[in-house]
Structures are given as structure tokens and as C-alpha cells.
Amino acid sequence: MSSPVDMQTDIGEAYLMPGAVHVSSVPVRCTTILGSCVALCLFDVAAGVGGLNHFLLPGAAPARDPEPLRWSDDACDFLYERVIAAGASACRLQVKVFGGAAVGMPVNAGSLRIGERNVEAVLSMLQRRRLPAPLASDVGGAAGRKLVFEAHTGRAWVKVLVQGTG
Amino acid sequence: MNRPRLRVLIVDDSELQLSFFRELLADQPFELDPVRSGADALAAARRRRPDIVLLDIEMPQMSGLEVVQALRRDPATATIPVIMVSCHRDADPMEHAFLQGCNDYVTKPVHKTELLAKIGSLTGFAPAGALP
């Protein structure tokens, strides 16, 4: 991944809340904070179109859930459809995946393994959609992450948020 | 044999928000310990050693960031999992919260499934109604 000092300064900024999706065909830099949640980034550099989501839970939203984009299946399908609708080509799409930590915990501790299951969910969506394996990923582990993603270029920066280093 | 109850310390200066959490978690086998200030939270954490803390990030006098920092400094409370409850719509507060030692976060309005999943993931306790 590139160093943050390489970032352009003349582009828009967006903060992505948990359960949100952001897709853009104009230059924009998106920031989000990930613990056990996962962000899927899809982009087509040739078209200058990209986007990301920030989902919290693995699987499909229950019927009548008012905020289905909190669930992996709904958030990833929605992102894919929106990126294609914004002008990306399905055959040129590239993928990056971030998040899914178990912060402060030994990996695999905890009966629900929510971070690990979120990562498994996004990888299975990539297979289902016949999308390529991630060009870059930083998943799992025991620390939160700050993700900065440029939707129009697909460039991403991750700051690993280790306790006591701020 | 009775299932052990999970001790949950809930910290929020708003009585309304504490009531919301009491209702939200009423059907869970949790022993809820609601307090309204950072100072009370630190005292309760040392006295009763909760299994997990739900901590409002924005409080007067002592903020959630200061509380999590103090919990991590004290060997008696350093490893208690903390879920930060945030109403912020920018990255900085939660970036700082992780750097101070919080384990995860939820945003207001808090969703039950999401909160139970995070509690279950951080404690090894499978709450009723959480993810299968």
C-alpha cells in the first residue's frame, strides 16, 4: 500500500458510518474505522468508479430488517450493483478487503467469532459473484483499523490502531 | 443448574440511554450494572469486575476515552473488554478510542443483534437471540 504522503489533496472526503455504502465516479477519499466489522472495496480504475461498504454482521438480513446494509450479503450485493450502475465494468472490477479483527483478544477466542465470520462472508460473496481474489487485504488480527480508500483510483491506506501507540 | 450470568457494566450519563439498554437487554441472562459517570464506572469495575463494559464515548467530566485509558492502566481492570458507544459521525473519536484500548464499538441508535454479536464475540458468551 502507498504511503499517506502520496495522497492527492484536491479531492472530496467522506466518512463511512457502520452499515453505510459509498459509491462514486468522482474523486473522493473515504475514511472508516473498523473493529470486527469488514469493508469491501470494489473499483474499476479505467472507468474511475469505485466504492466501499462497512458491514457489521455475517449473512443475510432477516426479513423486514430496516437496515439490511448492516449484514454482509445485503451490503456486498448492494455495493456490487451500485458500482456497476455507476459505470464500472464487471470484468474489470478489482477488490480489496479490510477489517474483521478480534480486538484485544487471542484470534479465534469468543464463541461468535464475529470478525472472522465477516471475513469468511465477504470471501464467499466474491466467489458467488465470480469476482477476482482481493488485490490487497488486511484482515483478522487483534487490532482495529483506520481505512482510507480512494474510490476513483482504488488506492487504500490502513493505519493499524494498536493500543498505546496513538 | 443455573447458567452463569454475564456481568455487564453500562456507563452513560443519560438516564434515558441507561433505560434503553435495560429494556434492550432485559431478555438476556445478564446482570446489568448501570452507572452515570466515569468515576462511578472505574469504582464499579474495580469492585465488581464486570465481564464487559458498554461505555458511552461522550460524557461530561470524564469522557469515555479517559475511562477506557484508566481501565487499561489499572492491572485489575486492564483486560476487561470494552465496547464503546458512539454518536459521532467522523473517524477521529473512534480512532482514538481504539488507540486507548477499546475492543469494538457500536453507534447510536444501538441495534440489538449487533450489540449481542459483539458481546458474544468478546466474552465467549453466546447471548440468546444473537447470531446462530
Give a brief outline of the structure.
The complex is a heterodimer of chains A (166) and B (132). Chain A contains 2 helices and 9 strands, in the order E-E-E-E-E-H-E-H-E-E-E.
Would you kindly provide a written description of the structure presented here, covering whatever features stand out?
The complex is a heterodimer of chains A (166) and B (132). Chain A has helices spanning 72-85, 114-128, and strands spanning 12-15, 21-24, 28-34, 38-44, 49-53, 94-99, 136-139, 144-150, 156-161. Chain A has 166 residues and is α+β, with helices and mostly antiparallel strands. In chain A, strand 4 (38-44) and strand 5 form a beta hairpin. Chain A is globular, with a radius of gyration of 15 Å. The two termini of chain A are 21 Å apart. Chain B is of the alpha/beta class and 132 residues long. Chain B has five helices and five strands. Chain B has helices at residues 15-24, 38-48, 64-73, 92-100, 112-123, and strands spanning 6-11, 30-35, 52-56, 82-86, 104-107. In chain B, strands 2-1-3-4-5 form a five-stranded parallel sheet, sandwiched between helices. In chain B, helix 2 packs parallel to helix 3 and helix 3 runs parallel beside helix 4 (92-100). Classes of the chains: A alpha+beta (166), B alpha/beta (132). The interface between A and B is medium-sized, with 36 and 33 residues.
